[in-house]
Amino acid sequence: MINRDEYVQKLKTQIDAWNAEAARWDEKARKAQTGMKAEYERQLDNFRKKRDEAMVELAPAAGRLGRRLDADDARDGGFHQEHAGRLRARAAQLRQEMTAVVGRGFAFDDLKPGFRFRTHRRTIGEADVAAFINLTWLTEELFAVVENEADSAARAIKGRPVPGALVYSFAEGLLLPTMQDTGLAFLNCTLDVKAPTVVGDTIHVECEVVEHRLTSKGDRGLVRFANQVVNQRGETVLAYNPLRLLKRN
Questions:
Q1: Are 40 and 28 spatial neighbours (Cβ–Cβ below 8 Å)?
Q2: CA 32 → CA 18, 22, 48, 75, 143, distances in Å?
Q3: CATH of 108-247, one of 2.40.10.10, 3.90.1150.10, 3.40.50.1460, 3.10.129.10
Q4: What does the pLDDT read at residue 82?
Q5: What is the pTM (predicted TM-score) of this model?
Q6: Is 199 within 8 Å of 125 (Cβ atoms)?
């Protein structure tokens, strides 16, 4: 089906052809001898009359066709816009389906009482202690001063002690992947330091679900864990039991 632009161009081309033909007859009339000039002028007048009559008859039809083409363009434009919207929505859905989120933690529905797991390990270095006591301002000499060998021998803790708060913070950091994107709130816990931790110790966290229940609204869950921070010798150096609010799924 011809569209509006094509029709307008075709009409313009026809009018230009008629005008060119009229110009040729006019040129012949000017150059013709006296005997032929009148004949050329008569033919030129007849051509102009037929051209003008054709254009008068064509104008209403052109208007009707133009209006019909406008309606078709509007209808087709609406269809194309709707179709393009559906394509964009489907493309967004496909991108979401194809983009899997990596590293999501345990949701409430993934857990049950008695479920156990452990984290990766982390070695605590001198730089960790220095950064932590500078950040928290735990400038107690036990952590901030390096003793000489004679004074160090008199200490109850052998080696460079690490604040219990640092051990707890590192334990939560090790546990972060287990609640990434699913953890909503840390509610409470009790915490016991069982043994000292010193620079150079390597720790990990062993966990067990000991409480598991839905909230009153039922759209999220409360989970309590029994967490033990264990060093490279298998000794439990810190224990705590956090109650966390988790997404259902």
A1: yes
A2: 21, 15, 19, 56, 119
A3: 3.10.129.10
A4: 76
A5: 0.60
A6: yes
